[in-house]
Specification:
Largest sheet: 6 strands, mixed
Structural class: alpha/beta
Strand content: 5-15%
Strand order of the largest sheet: 2-1-6-3-4-5
Distance between the termini: 26 Å
Helix content: 40-55%
Order of helices and strands: HEHEHEEHEHHHHE
Number of strands: 6
Length: 205
């Protein structure tokens, strides 16, 4: 999942200043035998509860998307997206990867803009908007490695099919994967492009 402790720090920093933070659990990024596709909402709820336990999410509320992925589809179907929404419901920042330092700066900028708008009157411009696309390699972190290991062998193979390599695998994992049958590689890429773990929302109340 990634960035949970830094995001918790931001939650604690900004919640007294009118910000609300939410994690939306949408689907498993790399389903495996330990954490398979959700066949029911009950199973999805179980996995979300495990997410809270494994990632030690104690402060930020976790919302759970429905079994059809309605919220996930509405917000772009990308992995680990972050949205900052102002009080008028306008998306003022979005990124397809979480960067706590960058989000901190955007929250500070929104506070300054709001203060300036209040001083200049109600007819001032809407909040500034920031959009960023992170490279796929941003997923290459210790959390990516732990995610597919935690899910099981099927998840490791799925990650290999999607990305073409296992940059965070041990020698034993890499050797085992290289000896596997990759006949389903193109399908794996298609499937993985639809699999995401969480979407994070920050709302200015």
């Amino acid at each position: 999942m990634g960035e949970v402790p830094p995001l918790t720090e931001l939650y604690e920093k900004y919640r007294s200043r009118g910000f609300a933070f939410f994690i939306v659990y949408v689907r498993e990024a790399h389903p495996g035998e330990n954490f398979p596709h959700h066949a029911s909402f009950e199973k999805k709820l179980e996995h979300a509860e495990k997410l809270r336990e494994v990632e030690n999410v104690n402060e930020i509320p976790i919302l759970i998307d429905d079994i059809h992925g309605t919220t996930h589809r509405a917000y772009g179907l990308l992995p680990n997206m972050v949205y900052l929404i102002d009080r008028e419901g306008t998306v003022v920042y979005k990124s397809d990867w979480s960067d706590a330092d960058e989000l901190d700066g955007v929250c500070t900028g929104l506070l300054r803009f709001t203060l300036g708008r209040n001083e200049s009157g109600p007819n001032s411009d809407h909040s500034p908007r920031y959009f960023r696309t992170a490279p796929l390699d941003s997923y290459g972190s210790v959390h990516a490695r732990e995610d597919y290991r935690r899910s099981g062998e099927k998840a490791i193979q799925d990650y290999l099919n999607a990305k073409g390599n296992l940059p965070y695998a041990t020698d034993a994992e890499r050797k085992k994967s290289e000896s596997s049958d990759h006949s389903g590689n193109s399908r794996g890429l298609e499937e993985s492009s639809r699999r995401c773990f969480v979407t994070r929302f920050v709302a200015r109340r």
